Amino acid sequence: MSAVIECVPNFSEGRDRKVVDAIVAAAAAGGGKVLDVELDANHNRSVVTIAGPADAVLESAFRSVRKAADLIDLNLHHGEHPRMGAADVVPFVPLAGASMADCVSLAERLGKRIGDELGIPVFLYGEAARTPARRNLADVRKGQFEGLREAIGRDPARKPDFGPERIHPTAGATAVGARFFLLAFNVYLDTPDVSIAKKIAASIRESSGGLKAVRALGLYMADRNQAQISMNLVDYRITSPAAALEAISMMAAEHGASVTESEFVGLVPRDAILKTAAESLRIKEFREDCLIETRIEAPPS
Amino acid sequence: MSAVIECVPNFSEGRDRKVVDAIVAAAAAGGGKVLDVELDANHNRSVVTIAGPADAVLESAFRSVRKAADLIDLNLHHGEHPRMGAADVVPFVPLAGASMADCVSLAERLGKRIGDELGIPVFLYGEAARTPARRNLADVRKGQFEGLREAIGRDPARKPDFGPERIHPTAGATAVGARFFLLAFNVYLDTPDVSIAKKIAASIRESSGGLKAVRALGLYMADRNQAQISMNLVDYRITSPAAALEAISMMAAEHGASVTESEFVGLVPRDAILKTAAESLRIKEFREDCLIETRIEAPPS
After folding, report:
1. Chain A residues touching B277 at Cβ < 8 A
2. Is A29 part of the contact surface with chain B (CB cutoff 8 Å)?
3. Which domain does A259 fall in, by range?
4. For residue range B44-53, what is the model confidence (pLDDT) as tens digits?
5. Residues of chain B whose pLDDT is less than 50?
6. Whether residue B227 sits in one domain with residue B242
């Protein structure tokens, strides 16, 4: 398999299936492979997962953004999730064989096309940000569609990286960026006591001085009557699922609880599984080409 | 990827590279993919790993056996490893999407072709054995080439499953069978004291009442000045590398030692890595199609 890029555009439509279907069809026609589509009615937002070679994914992302701009009017959009554009945020993520630099370059190419061809202002964020102030998506999206509409031509700090210095009247503005793969990983405790899960989450999350590259919440899952630590591992190379689980197991024991089960939410890169297995088995290095299947699929040497 | 079969024929030539190259070329021409070739000069034996769809692997195996019969004369063969044929033993192993029944059927088809077309007596062994007495390869190969030559027409217990009831004058006899994938897994201790490794190996190996489907030896590795537990996991679904490592870690601690590192020898099936990661993370079920790469490679639905 050659270098694979993932792109996960978020669109400001999570209720009208027909609109989302049209956006997905546009994405698929670009040549990238649509792996997943999630609609969230409360957020009134959908998330499409596209993967494939760089140029195909770029074309799919562009076509999906164009279709969203045709079909979604931000003036009519309401939902719980903050948003500023029809295509609200478009991150590129490096998968097998791809680098972050590849993804930054794709973000720049896509941003330029959206600005030039669709007349939508584009802000580069995450690893593609050109200033530290734009690394964090929440800062870029501050004020949302309505606030940005006022600020964009006046406040020099809100000048877009590509496209016009005014908001698109219906499609708003789009954040395009690059980031590492985000693993959603949940761990269940053998207790319904959510206070234990909250204490554990508070001590492992990076923002309170816990494990690096970990975001965590303590939740009560009514369907199981169990407390859960719900995590986003924003760089599993820094804190792996195995390391997070070990920390949780130790802290749970201090509270007289223990872990019953874990789960990933969504798709997982093979690399994360290889690293987990290698870490668990204390193997110094485990490369993809130690797998029989990798050898079978390799082109003849 | 459709169902994949592995075949690991062992040939009685480990010194003459040209002979082995010719056997490998014959295997490759059959349509299976040659993943690995190992020559052992002391054993005067080579091991070829072929993989691919069933029919291609069958054809590759047959052609390699035929070439070995052309080029190797058992009357001139000497080496430390017991052997009875030019192609000494040919196991089929189920990989992704394949079953043991598939492999037993392949062993029967290959055995019949070797017997009918090459005039070499064939004994089915392992999961393909037709009697319990032939499950164990060592029993099938008892007396080796020279002993079997005397016994084969006289002792009804040595009647081959396919082919003539006499040894092939130069190519001997061949054992053809089916078995599960064998994982070679080594664990290093933070001590040079081989007696600790030997004690641990003795308590974990199945033959002394330890872990099921585990063979283990305690060794001293001079290059590292470390004791090692060297294992064959003959069915990682029964005892996984993670389970073996955990048992070793606990026993090492009782001797005041600990594990520094592990390693696989040779190629590893992806399924074994997925199972290891799932077990370590306490994930109930982790299927291949939870991997992004599996979705990317899947045919369009």
Report:
1. 273-274, 276-277, 280
2. no
3. 183-290
4. 999 999 999 9
5. 1
6. yes
Which of B120, B144, B178 delimits the end of a domain? B178
Residue with tokens 């990798």: A294
Mark yes or no for CB contact A280/B276 under 8 Å.
yes
**Do the domain assignments include residue A166?**
yes
Catalytic annotation present for B81: yes
The CA distance from A51 to the nearest CA of chain B, in Å, is 7
| CATH number of the domain where residue B210 is located | 3.30.70.670
Residues of B in contact with A267 (CB under 8 A): 290-292, 295
pLDDT of the residue at A15: 94
User: ipTM of this predicted complex?
Assistant: 0.78
Q: Are residues A69 and A133 in the same domain?
A: yes
B187 and B151 fall within a common domain: no
Active-site residue (options: B43, B77, B81, B255): B81
Place of tokens 């080594």: B186
Q: Are residues B188 and B160 in the same domain?
A: no
Asked whether residue A300 is assigned to any structural domain, the reply reads no
Distance CA B240, CA B86 (A): 34
Q: Looking at the structure, tell me whether residues A199 and A137 fall in a common domain.
A: no
**Optimal mutation site among A4, A296, A297, A301, interface B, most CBs of chain B within 10 A:** A296
Note if the pTM is more than 0.90: no
Q: Are residues A261 and A286 in the same domain?
A: yes
Say yes or no: A262 contacts chain B, CB-CB below 8 A.
yes
> Does B51 contact chain A (CB < 8 Å)?
yes
- pLDDT tens column, A46-80: 999 999 999 999 999 999 999 999 999 999 998 87
Residues in chain B within 8 Å Cβ distance of A292: 4, 6, 35, 51, 95, 267-270
B270 has a chain A CB within 8 A of its CB: yes
Q: Is B3 on the interface with A (CB under 8 A)?
A: no
Beta-ladder partners of A168: A172
Task: Kindly determine whether residue B6 and residue A35, on different chains, have CB atoms separated by under 8 Å.
Answer: no
Residue B226 lies in a domain: yes
Q: Name the band, by pLDDT with cuts 50, 70 and 90, for residue A301.
A: low
**Same domain for B169 and B213?**
no
